[in-house]
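Dear all,

This email documents one entry for the complex benchmark we are building for the journal club exercise. For each entry we list the sequence lines for every component of the assembly. Then comes the predicted three-dimensional structure of the complex as a token string, followed by one or two observations. Please use this as the template for your own entries, and keep the labels exactly as they appear.
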Amino acid sequence: MTPLLRATALRKHFPIRKGLLLRETGRVRAVDGVSLEVRQGETLGLVGESGCGKSTLGRTLVRLYEPTDGSLEYKGEDLLAMRGERLRSMRRHIQMIFQDPFASLDPRMTVGQILAEPFKVHGACPPGERQDRARMLLDKVGLKSSYLNRYPHEFSGGQRQRISIARAMALNPELVVADEPVSALDVSIQAQILNLLKDLQQEFRLTYVFISHDLSVVDHFCDRVAVMYLGRVIETAPKDELFASPKHPYTQALIDAIPRVGAGKRKMKAALSGEVPSPIAPPAGCHFHPRCPRRHDGCERDFPRLVDVGGGHRVACNLYEESAAVAQPRSQPIPGLGART
Amino acid sequence: MSEVVVSVRNLQTTFHTRVGPVRAVDGISYDIGKGRTLGIVGESGCGKSVASYSLMRLIEPPGEITGGEVLLHGEDVLGLPDAQMESYRGSRMAMIFQEPMTALNPVLTIGYQMDEQIMRHTGLARKASRERAVEMLEMVGIPSPRERYESYPHQLSGGMRQRAMIAMALSCEPEFLIADEPTTALDVTIQGQILELIQGLQERLHMSVQFITHDLGVISEISDDVLVMYAGTACERAPTQALIDGPRHPYTVALLESIPRLGQRASRLPAIGGMVPSLYELPAGCPFQNRCPRVTDECRAARPSMRALAPGHEVACFNPVTA
Ligand SMILES: Nc1ncnc2c1ncn2[C@@H]1O[C@H](COP(=O)(O)OP(=O)(O)OP(=O)(O)O)[C@@H](O)[C@H]1O
Ligand SMILES: Nc1ncnc2c1ncn2[C@@H]1O[C@H](COP(=O)(O)OP(=O)(O)OP(=O)(O)O)[C@@H](O)[C@H]1O
Ligand code: SF4
Ligand SMILES: [Mg+2]
Ligand SMILES: [Mg+2]
């Protein structure tokens, strides 16, 4: 079956310019060769360290950024080639919830105007009904409809985040890239919003790309997970599989570092040692090698490909390069690694 | 208890909106000792940020601090002349803002903004302050700090912006730090690094910290005491472990139950039923009454005030859950 969205070798680089002539002195390789598929009706989690390129990838997927390189297909159609009216109607089906609600809500518009805007732009709903729809949307995200006449700065951080969720949902989109949609919310409202997103998904067969750094939320909410490191996807697997037996040493460290309630006041352990590398000058070979506890001879030189280790679990690490040749049955542990407890 | 550095007494902050006054913070009180950390938790919109802005005296019209005191070493900062407050802000008291873009100027580079702050409060010259800024960016785990010093805010990722702001707040080594959701945009590994940095500074400078977060995992790692807020009021305050092991306020109990846990397989997360009442239409009596499983007539008639149930453990509830 054709996936809803397919990215192939997608790159997005930002030039670094210096001096009066703004000469390009380097590049931030924010997204550097990502291939992935998003299937209709699923929720794909996108996780990874701050600065690894999640938001940039998200924005590129919804065509807010022109990719530097690579291709993008929506239902088998070349998304990058779409222009004019076709692109405009596409935009209605693909929405993004932005990471920074403060910056993404127009401060001069009331919440009512912000929520009616998508209807206006796409002529989606008769003008007389727009305020009612806006009121309904607010209600869905747990905000009083009496808030309609207030401006964004009159809300708390979490309230603003919910306004931007309501806005993205206004036009019943098919695909929503949600960039940290619940990070500013306390647990109870987080639960309320996640439940709402699930309900909408069931009702409308919505598809989500769900960007989050909170692994317990990802564990709860996603069907599959893609882990990014320095502009690349280094592991993808069905959610249960990923949390039960993460293969990449980076993913293992990430899962290890989750703080737990009731652990008591103590020094947090630094889960990963070594300097965080920069996408301006990524290390050669496996990008993760300078910090990797399982680094071995070839890692500084050999660039690991994303290989299938069975059961839809793909990993880009030199530890698994050979094992991929002989397709491993899913239950059999990878030599030298075994199942983690 | 150690020497009290910050003492908030009956703080009240009101927004005079078009539809009438709104008490976003309605009479909260707490102390923070030298070198201690108070965690503040509570539902979205309950007044955590407004309380913090009030302490820093950053409330702008139509908002106004309508009552109470904020004592820093016994001195009421709410009564200070503006110029003196200006010099306290950043050097003696600093704040990490929940949304970095509220605090960062989009048209100036990160480095320029850090330099301004450092030079103003430490008297360092530009060159030295630049070194200090780069060093701070490195300490918060921003790769290629020299290049990033030249970046504009929009060129950084969400988490990097948040860290740049943390670097800015910490660069002047304040004695009192307010951190408003400082790690929301950060993944666990970097979050750990930031918490360690704050704790390290705290040990070295005996800094007092007010730490707002909705992440109860973080609260239990970093804070000595916890204050739980609900609809502008304080509903429970206790030493961290006591609160997690034996919450007494029905809201706190519900809050702790709604945490998603790794490996939890329920298809729906337990949310607290009902909605937070709008601050415009707060009921008489206990603000939690419409969602509370233990509500009685008394709760609808009068507002419960904070009272101690155990040493250091205070609850504002007529029918507290038994320990
Ligand atoms: N300028 C303003 N005018 C009117 N009301 C305001 C204003 N600023 C904040 N409020 C209201 O005050 C209340 C408290 O807001 P505050 O930002 O302190 O919440 P919070 O506890 O920090 O929430 P969050 O966890 O979502 O950040 C909210 O209900 C908000 O709508
Ligand atoms: N407009 C831009 N100009 C230049 N560099 C940029 C721009 N946007 C992002 N970058 C850089 O690209 C890299 C990836 O940023 P991105 O925002 O995608 O990270 P992220 O994974 O979303 O991180 P976070 O979890 O902190 O939000 C970072 O190094 C960032 O500085
Ligand atoms: S005072 Fe009454 S309504 Fe309020 S929390 Fe306690 S039992 Fe519930
Ligand atoms: Mg991001
Ligand atoms: Mg807030």
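Observations: Chain A touches chain B through 78 residues (CB under 8 Å). The longest strand of chain A covers residues 23-38.
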